Structure formats: structure tokens, C-alpha cells
């Protein structure tokens, strides 16, 4: 029963969602299942929070080597959560002027932006070491990347200002984006869509059971 | 070239290839930070995809309602926040009514930050905008694309109250707004999932609502097919897209200012790639000989 019940539930919900798109009366069931989804999604947030605390508290309790990071996670969590829940005016916690907003602007905001900004450095280092014109395909990729990197910023047009309009680097970059890039994206999208349809059918028919944690 | 010189040159290229990455980091930080201290005005050419977004908003008559979904977090702030500010300036200048929401928890907060910035403008101050009348922030709701789908039937099912806890029925701006039929445009700022792709698939394709978007530079190329098919009015791609939008709007802001920095950083990365390839070919030639 532990296997059969989830399989039957998945099949019913999956088929209902497909059928309701074509037969409107089934929308009643679809709405019901979506309500369930909202409730599960809301509980998943609480579950995630509890799991985060449990995993990191466990690190501290067992004095694992990365225990200091666990402490930082727990303290960070409490630092944001307590002012947000108890000292920021309830539902209007995210309004300018509240302690939560202050912490968001002065702690979370710069930390999050910094993490993402580090990418620029790693991309630069990786480009230097790995971007090589080893063969024809790699050379084509390199040339396209070059045109885009310079053509998407004003410096590209400035460097090729001596060329007649229509032949400047910015226009080459636009052409790459509009035609080869878009054609490639379309092919990828169609491939993904077909893959999603086949995976969904396998899940609905019970052939794909990995989501239940086995097989 | 004698043997000694060859040995010397070889060691030079080898050294160059094995350069400490911290030196590269140093060049990049200088390339990014130094231009920020200079006020250089660069011509920003406008692409048709960016103009599509601008025109979608510009062509709305005064009083039109725009649903703005902020689906990003501070990690994408440098690219998307200038777009958010430009969008609010554009919308308020044209007397549009803005309904803000977020599929990412941080999204509605990002909208508040952009609003705070825009409210400093004299032009916007003069409009004396009222919360609940000219704009409203519905906040965040968990559920990703299911939220988009449910809003097609009823906004109230996904957002019974706004971010401050006021029931939607008591907000003047939301009176008469039941679903997508009652909004004139959706404007989406997105940094990933859920984002513009989900808005196209669940709102545009199913409920035939008009959509314009702003995306991170990484995500924007995936939106070009939707622009070509007309499912998306236009897309602003990365900081360049933000700069194009500000240029079209005639209000140069942070994106235009930061473009010089980005241009120099790109040029430095290109220079590193050239040096890396010169070293690679030089060593390959030497090995072959």
C-alpha cells in the first residue's frame, strides 16, 4: 500500500490536470488539487526551516568540523526571523522603516549581491584558462563570444565606428542573438518540451518511480 | 632564434599560462571599480527587443492597470533593479496603475526598494501618489506557476489580502480587478524559476494576456523565441537592457552609468582570452617543432 497509494494519487492528479485543460467541468477537481498544492507548498516552507535548523543544530551538537558554519546559519536565521516576526509590525514587516527592512537592506542585500558578484571574477579566470581555439567548433564559439562580449557593450560600437552602419560590432551581436542564438534556443526548447511530456507520462503511468525515493 | 632565447620565451609563455588567478581578479576589480569614478556618457544603441518592452508600456492609455511581478532577489539586483526603477518612473509618468506581486519571497521587497528610490524624484513627488489608489503591493505567495494559473481565474484566490493585510475588496485600485481580463499588461522582472518562461506558458498561452519582461543577461537569450512568436512583447536583457530602457525613457539612470564599467570589464576579459590563446598557440607550435 505504501507504493500503490502514491502511484494512484499521482495518476489521478496528473490525468485530471491534463483532462481539465480540454474538458472545463474537470476544473472543479483541478481547483481542488491546486488548493491542496498551496497547502502543501506552505507547509514545505515550515518543513524546510525545521530541516535547516535540525541539520545545523546536529552539526553543533556533534561538534563536526563545520560546526562554526552551522552556528552562523542558526544565528543568521534568528537574526532575521525574530525581528521580522515580533518587532516589525506583523504583516507589514517588509515596509520601509521596520527592523526587518533595515536588516534586509543592510545585511541580506549586500551579502546576496556579493555572492553573485563573485561570479565575474571566476568567469574571467575560467575564460583565461579554458577558452581556447582548439578546433573549428571551439573557434566559432570563441569568435561568437568575442563579438557578443564586445558588441553588447558600447565599446564594441566605439571600436568599429569607422565601419559603415549595419556592419558594426553591435549589429553583428544583434544578428547573432536574433538568428543563430534564437534558432538554437528553439531547438533546445522543443527538445526539453518533448522530454517533459515523456517524463510526465512516465510518472503518471507509474513507470517512473524515482520521486518516491527508490527504483 | 638560439636555444637560450627559446628557453627564455618558453618560460615566459608558461609563466603567463600559469598566472596566479588573484592577479586576474585584481585586473577585473580595477576594470569594474575604476570606471565607476568617471562620468563617461556612452551612446547606447537600442535593440528592437528592448524597444518592444518600452512600447508595450508606452502605448497604454493613462489609467491602465499593469500587473508587475518581481521575481528576483538581491543577487540579480545590479541587472534588474535599474529596470525596476525605470519601469516605475515610466508607469507613473504615464499615469498607469501598478499592481505589484512576487513569486520570489524577496521580489516584493525589491519593489519597495525601487519605489523608495523613485519617490525621491521631483516629478513623481508632484504626482502625490497614493498607496491603494495608484499602486499596491500584494506581496509574495508560495506556489510558483500554480499561482499564475490561479490568478487567471481570480486574483483573490492567490492573494486574498495585500502585503499589509488589507483585504483586496477594500483596496480602491483592486476594485473591478478579478483576473487577467482586468489588467492591460503584465510586466515581469525575472532572474530564473519561476519567471518569464512560466508567465508565458501559464498566463500568455492560456489566458492571452499581454506580457513584457526584463531578465538577467544569462536568462534573456532563452526569451528571444517568445519575442519572435509574439508571445512576449519585448525583453530587456541584463544591464544593457536596463540602459536601453533608460535611454528610451530619456531618464539616464544607474544602468547607463554602469555600462562604462561593464564595457571596460568585458574588454579586459577579452584581452585575457587573447593572451591565453596566444600563449596556447605559442606553446603548441613549440611542442610541434
Describe this structure as you would to a colleague.
- The complex is a heterodimer of chains A (about 220) and B (about 290).
- Chain A is about 75% helix and about 0% strand.
- The relative contact order of chain A is 0.06.
- In chain A, helix 2 packs across helix 3, helix 3 runs antiparallel to helix 4 and helix 5 crosses helix 7.
- Chain A is mainly α and about 220 residues long.
- Chain A has a domain of about 80 residues.
- The longest helix of chain A is centred in the last third of the chain and has 36 residues.
- By secondary structure, chain B is α/β, with parallel strands linked by helices.
- Chain B folds into two domains: about 70 residues; about 200 residues, Rossmann fold (3-Layer(aba) Sandwich).
- Chain B has twelve helices and six strands.
- A six-stranded parallel β-sheet of chain B has the order 3-2-1-4-5-6, with helices on both faces.
- The mean pLDDT of chain B is about 90.
- The interface between A and B is large, with 56 and 64 residues.
Q: What attributes does this structure have?
A:
heterodimer, A: 215 residues, mainly alpha, 7 helices, B: 289 residues, alpha/beta, Rossmann fold, 2 domains, six-stranded parallel β-sheet, 12 helices, 6 strands, 52% helix
Which CATH architecture of the largest domain in chain B is right?
A: 3-Layer(aba) Sandwich
- Beta fraction of chain A: under 5%
Name the poorly predicted regions of chain B.
none
- Radius of gyration of chain A equals 26 Å
How much helical structure, as a percent, in the residues of chain B? 40-55%
- What about the largest sheet of chain B? 6 strands, parallel
The overall pLDDT of chain B, averaged over residues, is 92
Number of domains of chain B: 2
The H-and-E topology of chain A, N to C, reads as HHHHHHH
* Distance, first to last CA of chain A: 16 Å
Structural class of chain A: mainly alpha
* Average pLDDT score of chain A: 90
Helix count, DSSP H or I runs of 4 or more residues of chain B: 12
Amino acid at each position: 500500500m505504501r507504493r500503490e497509494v502514491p502511484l494512484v494519487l499521482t495518476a489521478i492528479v496528473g490525468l485530471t490536470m491534463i483532462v481539465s485543460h480540454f474538458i472545463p467541468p474537470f476544473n472543479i477537481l483541478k481547483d481542488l488539487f491546486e488548493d491542496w498544492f498551496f497547502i502543501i507548498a506552505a507547509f514545505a516552507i515550515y518543513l524546510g526551516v525545521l530541516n535547516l535548523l535540525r541539520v545545523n543544530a546536529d552539526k553543533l551538537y556533534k561538534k563536526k568540523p563545520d560546526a562554526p558554519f552551522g552556528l552562523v546559519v542558526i544565528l543568521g536565521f534568528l537574526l532575521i526571523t525574530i525581528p521580522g516576526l515580533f518587532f516589525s509590525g506583523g504583516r507589514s514587516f517588509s515596509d520601509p522603516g521596520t527592523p526587518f527592512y533595515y536588516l534586509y537592506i543592510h545585511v541580506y542585500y549586500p551579502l546576496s549581491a556579493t555572492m553573485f558578484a563573485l561570479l565575474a571574477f571566476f568567469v574571467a579566470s575560467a575564460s583565461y584558462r579554458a577558452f581556447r581555439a582548439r578546433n573549428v567548433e571551439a573557434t566559432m564559439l570563441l569568435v561568437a563570444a568575442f563579438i557578443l562580449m564586445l558588441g553588447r557593450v558600447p565599446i564594441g560600437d566605439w571600436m568599429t565606428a569607422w565601419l559603415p552602419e549595419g556592419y558594426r560590432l553591435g549589429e553583428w551581436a544583434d544578428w547573432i542573438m536574433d538568428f543563430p542564438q534564437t534558432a538554437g534556443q528553439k531547438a533546445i526548447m522543443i527538445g526539453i518540451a518533448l522530454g517533459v511530456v515523456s517524463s510526465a507520462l512516465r510518472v503518471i503511468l507509474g513507470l517512473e518511480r524515482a520521486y518516491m525515493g527508490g527504483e | 632564434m638560439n636555444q637560450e632565447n627559446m628557453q627564455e620565451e618558453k618560460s615566459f609563455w608558461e609563466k603567463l599560462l600559469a598566472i596566479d588567478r588573484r592577479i586576474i581578479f585584481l585586473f577585473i576589480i580595477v576594470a569594474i571599480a575604476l570606471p565607476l569614478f568617471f562620468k563617461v556618457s556612452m551612446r547606447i544603441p537600442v535593440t528592437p527587443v528592448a524597444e518592444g518592452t518600452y512600447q508595450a508600456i508606452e502605448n497604454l492609455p493613462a489609467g491602465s492597470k499593469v500587473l508587475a511581478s518581481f521575481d528576483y532577489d538581491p543577487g540579480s539586483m545590479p541587472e534588474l533593479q535599474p529596470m525596476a526603477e525605470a519601469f516605475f518612473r515610466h508607469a507613473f509618468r504615464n499615469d498607469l496603475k501598478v499592481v505589484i506581486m512576487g513569486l520570489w519571497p524577496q521580489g516584493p521587497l525589491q519593489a519597495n526598494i525601487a519605489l523608495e528610490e523613485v519617490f525621491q524624484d521631483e516629478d513623481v513627488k508632484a504626482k502625490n501618489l497614493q498607496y491603494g489608489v495608484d499602486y499596491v503591493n500584494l506581496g509574495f505567495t508560495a506556489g510558483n506557476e500554480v499561482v499564475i494559473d490561479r490568478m487567471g481565474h481570480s486574483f483573490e484566490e492567490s492573494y486574498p489580502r495585500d502585503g499589509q493585510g488589507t483585504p483586496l475588496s477594500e483596496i480602491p485600485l483592486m476594485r473591478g480587478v478579478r483576473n487577467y481580463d482586468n489588467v492591460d499588461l503584465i510586466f515581469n522582472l525575472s532572474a530564473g524559476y519561476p519567471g518569464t518562461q512560466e508567465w508565458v506558458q501559464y498566463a500568455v498561452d492560456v489566458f492571452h494576456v499581454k506580457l513584457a519582461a526584463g531578465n538577467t543577461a544569462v536568462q534573456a537569450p532563452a526569451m528571444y523565441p517568445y519575442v519572435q512568436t509574439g508571445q512576449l512583447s519585448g525583453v530587456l536583457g541584463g544591464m544593457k537592457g536596463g540602459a536601453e530602457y533608460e535611454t528610451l525613457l530619456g531618464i539616464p539612470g544607474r544602468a547607463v552609468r554602469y555600462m562604462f564599467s561593464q564595457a571596460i570589464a568585458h574588454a579586459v576579459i577579452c584581452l585575457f582570452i587573447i593572451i591565453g590563446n596566444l600563449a596556447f598557440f605559442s606553446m603548441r607550435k613549440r611542442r610541434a617543432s
